[in-house]
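Figure-free illustration: sequence to structure, shown twice.
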Amino acid sequence: MDGVERAKSGHPGTAMALAPAMYALWQHDMRYDPANPLWPARDRFVLSGGHASMLLYSLIHLAGIKSVESGKVVDKPSLSVKDLESFRQLDSLTPGHPEYHHTSGVETTTGPLGQGCGNSVGMAMAERWFAARYNRPGFKLFDYHVTTFCGDGDMMEGIASEAASMAGHLGLGNLTWIYDRNHISIEGSTNLAFTEDVGKRFEAYGWHVVHIDDGNDHEAILAALKECKNVKDKPSLIVLTTVIGFGAPKKAGTASAHGEPLGNEEIIGAKASYGWLKDAPPFYVPEGVKEHFAEGLGRRGAKASAEWDKLFAEYGQKHPELAAELKAIFAGELPQGWDKDLPVYETNEKGVASRQSSGEVLNAVAKNLPWMIGGSADLSPSTKTTIKDGGSFQPEKWNGTYSGRNIHFGVREHAMGAICNGLALSGLRVFCSGFLIFSDYMKTPIRLSALMNLPVSYVFTHDSIGVGEDGPTHQPIEQLVQLRATPNVTLMRPSDANEVTEAWRFLIQHKTGPVALALSRQNLPTIDRSKYAQASGLTKGAYVLACCGQTPDVILMASGSEVGLVVAAYERLRAEGVKARVVSMPSLDLFEEQDQAYRDSVLPPSVKARVGVEMASPIGWDRYVGPEGKMIAMPGFGASAPAGQLMKKFGFTVDDVYEAAKALLAARH
């Protein structure tokens, strides 16, 4: 209450209602060492309703969770009272919604409702995978539980339904969601829009469901948590009926307790109802409270983590290779030789679709990177993202094992993205895939990958009107722009198989954010690298692929499949004696990171005649083509027809590129 009041903004009601459940979980149930928040075998807590962040911040302070700096635990508290007093203020450690890496003790960035639910499913899947691959007789290294607080808003969001359906299918008995059923939304009672029986829905998903009628019943909460942990073959939902803003004289149980400060009068009344010290100042922590947490959560967690450290040391003696893998995972490192089998492709006029070469490179990487796992939204035969001999991540009753490396997400793109974030937060190198057009369903989890600096690999195929007959519903136009516009996302659209290899070489080593690949359905000629520049230029984002050997009169530039068009047009111009240059631009994001000298060496400012080609929206290309250049791009949505006919209709032929270049040259003379 005090934090929201001081900030003059925030959400006090849910934090007040869930405080008893938070106390019961952390003080009496969670296996977590506040002195070592990086302990790999710790239980995970996710606050999916991130608007109630003061609940988590208060717990982090009271429990004495240590700070993490540059990946190391340091001997100082994550949050002080001063930090709590700075709630929602500039540069504070207590932003309006919890942010991973920003505040120690926060396991994931939450705020967009339902995302934390999806993250928690990924975390639970990761525990199952770690246990299946690394646990050995006498060495139960991984047996942690994931608990999520979620609310009516989460339950209304489709992503939570997708994630819950998948968790039920997978039988994730290490996952518990505590559903705060307070019957209140921003507009008023949930009866305005949400009247379903959530418990029955989750039973249909295959979840174990427990109901608690009083959110303040500490003993009932503890009994429910114990019951849920004893259910090993299915996830659990605790339907916890609470009163939002509990204790506030006039605002308890009302929508006004949700998203605005209570006001001093209501705070005084609420504190009185709790039996709080009458003259206590704001942010007051009574003597003995921190010691109480230290004796419960702290003592239990310290004992468990010390025992685990001892067990892991013994494990290292018995199973040194597996222990070495785990150390690399915990350190975010790659195994030696991970790239030793990356393919080099011979020149081939017919070539291969970049989705096909990507699948081959993925398998070359996966062979030497054992903790690389992933899958697709029911599209792996099309996206070519199956790890050969990797097995399926499934319970035995569905003919798989939890050590499987191929995840079958089903047609659940939105949950897929959030689940992959949860897997990445657990240390695994994860990829997911689908058609580029369906990245629309994944906008929020991709954005959160970027916000959390997670190295999730998004493999998107069918990247242009080259999709053909499926028509405009399946032909991406604005998606490349959207991905390029998202901060910290690196988009790559390779032009041939060797650029695909270099793209994978880059993304596996990239640790500070997601990488998205945009790959073709149609074959792309494999460029003759003895004649043209090496594909390693991809790491610069754009590079001179072919040139006349001097300052050109015209520059032809493109990404992806369109590079083949500009190369053919270049050869025709060159045969006529025109001084031309081809620039392959697989990643505008990486090109923008280069210094001005390099960018000017690729695109000399003095050369104004420029032709850019991309089968998508032209937005963003103006900075490279310039006001005197010509952009060949999509003017609107596509159409349903064979790909060749679409290329002619929309102007993506060698003749079109050639004529555009000639027109620019003629205009300058």
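We now fold a second protein in the same way, so the two outputs can be compared directly.
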Amino acid sequence: MKFDTPATVNPIDRLKVVGQPHDRIDGPLKTTGTAHYAYEQHDAVPAHAYGYIVPATIGKGRVVSIDTSRAKVAPGVLAIVTAKEAGKLTKGKYNTAMLLGGPDVQHYHQALAVVVAETFEQARSAAALVRVDYARTPGAFDLAAAKAAAVKPDDGQPDTAVGDFSGAFAAAPVKLDATYTTPDHSHAMMEPHASIAAWDGGKLTIWTSNQMIHWGKGDVATTLGLSPDNVRLISPYIGGGFGGKLFVRADAILAALGARAANRPVAVALPRPVMFNNTTHRPATIQRIRIGATPDGKITAIGHEGWSGDLRGGGPETAVQQTRLLYAGANRMTATRLATLDLPEGNAMRAPGEASGLMALEIAMDEMAEKLKLDPVDFRVLNDTQVDPEKPNRPFSQRNFVQCMRTGAERFGWNQRSATPGARRDGRWLLGMGVASAFRNNLVMKSGARVRLGKDGRATVETDMTDIGTGSYTVIAQTAAEMLGLPIGQVTVLLGDSSFPVSAGSGGQWGGNSSTAGVYAACVKLREAIAGALGMDPATVVFEDGKVTAAGKSKAIAEAAAGGELVAEDSMEYGDLAKKFQQSTFGAHFVEVGVDAATGEIRVRRMLAVCAAGRILNPKSARSQVIGAMTMGVGAALMEELVVDKRLGFFVNHDLAGYEVPVHADIPHQEVVFLDETDPVSSPMKAKGVGELGLCGVAAAVANAVYNATGVRVRDYPVTLDKLLDKLPAA
């Protein structure tokens, strides 16, 4: 099905199932331990062996020799695979570094070998016996030091220029020119990267934890030199990903190589202390923002430059992208520069680009509001735009940004905020409020599904879509139930198997909207088949309460499959609407903090997110997604930082003891408000993504609240007490 004109009235609009706050249908399985994750497929793969990786202990250089002699004779060892034993491997499309290194070492903890043994303990013990000798070479591990040599990336992220930015900025009566930094961040998801691989002749099956099944299948085939037809990926449940599982990682490839060498299935899980340097992370950024405005607050010039680093062949963190679209201003400039660093691979992490970019831009907007003596909410509202500022003839499909700001200000009690920093107290606590805009582009991806109607009247949906804890099972079931007029309990959803039709996958907050649109397309085709089987007019037929009605006659939907199961398959493809309309999601984040006047300890007291993201398919799971994103934003603001050893080239705090993330006690109260909107330009579902929007802007709202509480402006994240202590107001 082609989606190239805005959606009109369709069966989803009945909202009997879609749009309702259904419980997660996978919830009971997960809370009872009966949802088997990648490393737990013991029933599907009995008697498998275990692999344990040997990671590089230098940041850059070459392997001179690998001595596996002691490991080979250790108890239980079945096989050891290094680059030499593996033979020719090819780098996958979605990886920057080789997943099995050697002789070249591209980054710290790059996998150099896998030891396979009967038990996990035997594999781990034997891996410790492998001796690797290196020839270390100098590497680049410091973004600030490499900044001067950074270049314009060649991956389709051009600089932009509209009007005369330099001239307008120089002439602006009020201006800001400031630099902000964000550190490297880790995904730190609950489930580690894990896989079980099994060969059947030349055919390979991998049970793995992967967000994008089709991409993963292709990269496994490319890496191992197999036909894609001989590779099957299965990933029914994923214990969190945040973008770190968009791409196949070393666990999957080493499980496959180990299984081939040992001639039996092999399970490989990356140990938590290895994940931080072996897999991907959100790259650090340096961002320079310049804003010029008239005394009444109208932006006349806005410029944003961003620097980040990655391994050679990698891409940038596009932290400037929201600045192209969020605020009005006739004279504009954005520029992205990429430095070559020898740190582990930088890549997508929840809301790549906007999450980092808004951490800087939304502090800059607060600083500018203060210079103009304007309320920060009013300043943002004043510079709203209903068209793409770079292409004024291209309107936004929906843009309720101002409503988000105004609704949030009223709900949060923004009028209680003092414009004078440090003016509000609660005992020893300095109190402050902060606000930030939320923005994330709405992306759609081609997505397919297969829907079956059985003789018992039950529907089954099959698609390689994944559920990373986001509620995919539930919104897909809701979509099929709505389209076929069935209770949600009569729909079975099967996900995460590359033998199913190719879906959008889970990433870029495109998953929910795109995958349900694919199910919609398949259900339209199945509705036609059902109507035909029952001798009814497909154009007038109504599906409701398990019955099919047309021309005053009703039949049970099960009758359509009396002669055998009915099957329909289709996908949703998107036309040129994205060229005619700018599709984005919007929001506003409000935060109140307390800062200890003596110690600088920061406590988040309450948070509010107001989101405009099209139709909300399941308010209950969407709220959960936004609350999780808000929590992640607090981590980015106050705690999270991968500390780089700039001499040896690795992340020092590579475990959950040293890499701090928020816990329940850190955030007493969170509230989420969804504006009542639909976007017919987005898809037949009239929905958009929301899971990443909930993160965008949160860190800046926290930082702005800290400033309002203390008068101390921190431009280098995270906002830790050591950056406040010597600047706090006198007690």
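Summary for the second example: The chain is about 25% helix and 25% strand.
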